[in-house]
Amino acid sequence: MGRKATPEDFHPKYNAPPFLFRDDFDGWRDTPKFDFRNKPQLLNRIKARLNNPEMKTKIAQMDFLFDAVTVILFIIYILVQLLRLNFVQYMPIYLFVPLMAALRISLSGAGHYFNHRAQVRWNKLFAHIFDINYVPMSFVVIDGHSLMHHPYTQSDVDVKQNVFTAMMELPRYYRIPLHTVHKLGHVLTGMFVRTIEMCTYAIKYGVKDFYGSWQRSLPHYVGMVSMRVLLFSELIAFWMHGDLAAWFGQFVLTLWISTFMIVASHDFEEEVKDDLSEEQDWAVLQIKNSYDLTMVGNKYIDCFLSAGLSPHRVHHVLPYQKSGFANVISEDIVCEEAEKFNIVWSKPKNFFCDRLPILARHYLFSPSRWAKNKNRGLLKEHFHPQALRTSAEYIYKGFVGIGSI
After folding, report:
1. Which residues contact 302 (CB under 8 A, 6 or more apart)?
2. What pLDDT sits at residue 285?
3. N or C: which end of the chain has fewer CB within 10 A?
4. Beta bridge partners of 219
5. Whole-model pTM?
6. Which helix or strand (DSSP H or E) is residue 293 part of?
């Protein structure tokens, strides 16, 4: 355009699907505003201390250690499955199911940080490990997460608050079985169809505007296809060994813990939002609207077990940091500077005790949106033709893939 972009250059609803925003949402008015040139702001105070050479060296070491642990976890992930398939006496199902859930969630947490890194070289490939917990599709959500969640935390534009949007259209007592079948459909066929759709776009519109060249784009597509093949192959391997119960147990546990974990580190179930009309201090807003989660109480272990959400406030203040370990050692500095701005540094919340009961009550046991708007009772919520049609369409979209993620 030959000039600086202005908010009016964007579509007022970002040309996004209507269900993402409320009806009266206006991106020109309702988008959070930040002035990073304001030197006294909290973010600049934090960055000044982190840019100390000694601290930069420590952060680089933590990034290396984080990657090393990720490699070890992936080797264990393979070995645990081989042990279950070939030497079942050493890997009973009561040990296999929670162990696989923990490993998948941990590796997805590593993938979360790979998504935040510059998409160059091996990062393009390894970012797709984000999908190993059966929930996201990195190829699709990488932009949504980095561009439509972090800058818009807790606002009406924050896409993360829509994780349960489609599920909330279902009758309350159908949600667990239908969403489980929906995601099983993703593993069997849905994400393969979606993958083909993504590749078709590349052929139809060309990759030059997306990635510059086929060579640059290839790792993205290889990573996307490889992850779909890996998840499907694991299912087939367990089926051929007559051990589908073990596969299904770890699938269900991983899926539901991961799904709740996505919304556990923010107050999306609350109706009250911050005033986003005035220009704000980035770091202050991020700290006030994010939680840290604990799983077992050790920050370095929790960093993986929480899919990277344990040092979540630091992650939101400094989303460009490359690893959860870097965020852990940066936490004292962020906390100390935040307190100088009179920001209360609250204790982390335990995922299982503090967050999961609230989230389950809100997302699993509240009436469907249709029943609430039409003031329908429990029976009509579950057996009205509209409710049954919505339920059938939800399963169908899981197996077709398109329109479901």
Report:
1. 293, 294, 295, 296, 310
2. 86
3. N
4. none
5. 0.89
6. strand 293-294
